[in-house]
Design brief:
single chain, 2 domains
Length: 376
């Protein structure tokens, strides 16, 4: 590293300028020839008494030549995603199997292991929660549009929630028959309903939070008003009031009514997508999930405070042994290197460095303090 090499060279030059001593030991110290002549100061000029001269300053060589680094703890900014999954009766059979396979592939991606996931499949379905409908669906209208039960898997770290999500998908009790798609009420749940109480993690303000809607149908039996208008209102409020952004994927058989409702979510969700993503089969759904996940993986990292001894003005970041230079004016998509997003606490990596982090090419980042920041 440049600053360490500079320190080493200066140390050698310093030793040379001070002179060596031949035949001396640590105990004896340097030996001098007492018979050697010494030059007296010119007439009229007193010798300088360096022991008492208050103007004489001896430089602290350690300040210039020693650059000792200590590690910061660093963690990626938290990203939370609540999956809102249509599990109406139209999903029974191949559609449910394809969605299960796509979610398993997504959750198996090591690049997503730092993310937090949850699952709220709608209408609500829990063993024992449903009434015994027999052969007459009309007897199950309350259950057909159920949305008030808590999420099947509350948002939490990937290591905890991924097995629970796949466990729900592989449960033979789901999807259940005679069920509809309460899309409006499900979004209302996260706007003005019980969402903040029953799924509090997705409302936390220390990271990025998302709802990801995957539906193979539209709301036609569960809401009596204008679904497009209601979805627009709820999605905007979820974004503006709670800081939660929303994606929408239309799966399987796509109709014009379904497009209008999902576009109401996507266009007001606050992401880079202004319309829903269509996915007519399992591979297309897996591709859509991969595309979305690529936009939510963050290049923002938080430095844990090591205490008052750390010099926050002298910070460097490394990819293994290689330094990543500071680029004060960079952004996620421009420049290269890193810059302070929040001074001394939150850093954003930029350009090709960010791309390498998202692709997994950079997998081990290290932060240090104690040496001058290397600027690009």
């Amino acid at each position: 590293m440049i600053h360490r090499l500079t320190c080493a060279i200066l140390s050698i030059l310093l030793a040379a300028s001070l002179g060596g001593c031949s035949g001396c030991s640590a105990e004896d110290g340097p030996s001098f020839d007492s018979s050697a002549e010494t030059d007296a100061p010119p007439d009229g000029i007193d010798a300088i008494d360096t022991a008492t001269d208050t103007n004489h300053e001896t430089p602290d060589l350690n300040d210039d030549l020693v650059c000792a680094e200590s590690d910061f703890e660093i963690r990626r900014e938290t990203v939370r995603i609540m999956l809102l999954l249509d599990q109406s009766s139209s999903m029974i059979g191949a559609p449910w199997t394809e969605v299960t396979d796509a979610l398993e592939a997504m959750l198996a991606d090591p690049m997503l292991f730092s993310l937090h996931f949850g699952l709220d499949a709608f209408p609500d379905g829990y063993p024992g929660f449903w009434t015994d409908c027999g052969a007459l669906c009309v007897r199950c209208m309350a259950d057909s549009c159920g949305y008030e039960a808590p999420p099947q898997v509350p948002v939490g770290p990937h290591s905890t929630t991924a097995p629970l999500i796949i466990g729900h998908m592989n449960n033979p009790d789901y999807p259940q028959f005679c069920t509809s798609t309460p899309l409006v009420n499900q979004m209302e749940y996260y706007d003005t309903g019980a969402g903040p109480t029953e799924s509090p993690d997705v409302y936390m303000d220390d990271g990025q939070n998302y709802l990801l809607v995957v539906s193979d149908g539209y709301d036609e039996n569960c809401f009596s008003g204008d679904p497009v208008s209601a979805l627009t209102t709820h999605t905007r409020s979820i974004r503006d009031t709670h800081g939660i952004r929303s994606f929408a994927i239309g799966y399987h058989d796509i109709t014009s009514e379904m497009e209008a409702q999902l576009n109401a979510i996507a266009s007001n969700g606050g992401t880079s997508y202004t319309s829903y993503i269509p996915a007519t089969d399992g591979p297309a759904l897996e591709a859509a999930l991969t595309e979305i996940m690529g936009t939510v993986i963050t290049c923002v990292y938080v430095l844990e405070d090591p205490g008052p001894i750390a010099d926050h003005t002298n910070v460097n970041f490394y990819d293994g042994p290689d330094i990543i230079y500071m680029d004060p004016d960079c952004t996620e998509t421009s420049g290269d290197g890193w810059h302070w997003l929040v001074e001394y606490t939150t850093v954003e990596f930029c350009g090709p460095t960010c791309e390498a982090i998202k692709s997994g090419e950079i997998s081990s980042l290290r932060a240090t303090w104690g040496c001058p920041t290397e600027i690009i």
